[in-house]
Amino acid sequence: MTHTRQPAVVVSGVRKSFGETVVLDGVDLTVAEGTIFALLGPNGAGKTTIVRILSTLISADSGTARVAGHDVVSDPDGVRASIGVTGQFSAVDELLTGKENLQLMADLNHLGRAAGRARVGELLDRFGLVDAAAKPVSTYSGGMRRRLDLAMTLVGSPRVIFLDEPTTGLDPRSRRLMWDDIRELAAGGVTILLTTQYLDEADELADRIAVLDNGRIVAEGTPDELKRRIPGGHVRLRFTDPRALHAAAALVDGAIPDEERLVLRVPGGGDVASLRHLLEQLDDARIAVEELSIHSPDLDDVFFAVTGQPTLEQEAA
Amino acid sequence: MSTLAYTISDSTTMFRRNLRRLQRYPSLTLLLVGMPIVFLLLFVYVFGGQLSHGLGATYLGGHTGRAGYLNYVTPGILLMTVAASVQGTAIVVAMDMTGGIIDRFRTMAIARSAVLTGHVLASLVQSLLGIGIVLGVAVALGFRPEAGVLDWLASIGLLMLFAFALIWLATALGLAAKSVETASNTPMFLTLLPFLGTGFVLLATLPTGLRQFAQYQPFSPATETLRGLLTGTPIGNNAVIAVAWSVSIALASCLWARHLYTNSRTA
Q: Between A and B, how many CB-CB pairs are < 8 A?
């Protein structure tokens, strides 16, 4: 008999509504132990709701979820003892210093005096917070706060970590640092489920990605599998008047007009042949283009590829 | 460790956290203790000379004029200090509940009750501190209680019990509030209640409807008991009523707070 490892997270048929609004509409997912799994989706797709259900903060209306072998409903304390959560909003005590925040976590994890102190020192060092250790968190920058937040999550050495949009709002440098931290954690054998709105982030970090749209998982696979489904970015055309925009939208296959910004989004690559074809089409129809730019694949392209629709935010725009 | 040991350990940790927060945010404590001091000065120096004329010798404690009124009004002011202090409880509880850290606590395997216990214990310390400061001001103004050791112990016990009750009430109000701003306003009625009781004037001087309310609302029996213990005025059955009120408020508010804490899971 071969030994099969138990998955770290198993979600099946989870549904959740807030009042009339259906937030999760039957979600199934499995995260293998020791891997990084990314939930990719726009705001309002239900990413945070999944994290909140898995971290025992709210309960699902139906369906089951198990984390590290514990059921979130029947054994929430078992789940809590195995997980670490870093949410979208910083979960640090502003009035305490960085060191005191970590010490608080050490005490709540019942690490004992000596072991707690050692763990606090180790994490301050690892997250580059030694110099700021004695300063109140209210003086920290966004990136430092996020690192402290993650460090606090790690005090209890959790086996499964949930990171809800770990880099939203961070500057590029802090974002890179956070990515390094996440990779380092995974290398240590921890299972990570993270949510993100950025394809590049999921691509950089995740072993598997699930695309969430309107409370459903619309695609799942390795980053390469998903990227193979993306036609390769898009070309953006900007016009000076709505008439030109409408004319161009009627002319080009699959183009998505943005009335407000007078921009037409044409799916497809930025290769010379297809660009030339596009420009010839526009020339022949005597449509004046104000500006043209080429964009590498982003979340919207993934969305378009797997759902055939622009993301919700675009529809709203 | 057993469950009980964990509960005690987690509650102690939370207590320490909240004490440290009080230490880092001293302006809140000072602001809260400032109000009863202002009322003490106002009532002794502005109204005291006049109001003292309506009080009988029993209440003046052998003094006359302002000094006599100081003797009369201090117990009520001390209870007002408790009421003002618990506004801080509601504020810090709401700060916690509306901030991100409460979600962290909820996703950790810690004793559920520890978060609230930590707040209540730290608030008790804050209240006692406030009472000490206000009492110090009263003594500086000339308040000379003729209480014995047992009377003092009973006074401290009563103040702590009353504070405990109002702290649980404020904790529940803080949990029920949707924002810190709301939480800083809802317990305000508590600081008004001493005025609608026997804190500042004699019961007999009030109109009928108000008199009945004033006689039985929680602050009056507590004021009368404290006044009796500190200045030797008759207590009657007020001590029993004050303790009954405190225990009932504490119990009901504790249950309410625990209910709110377990069920106020935000979306």
A: 65
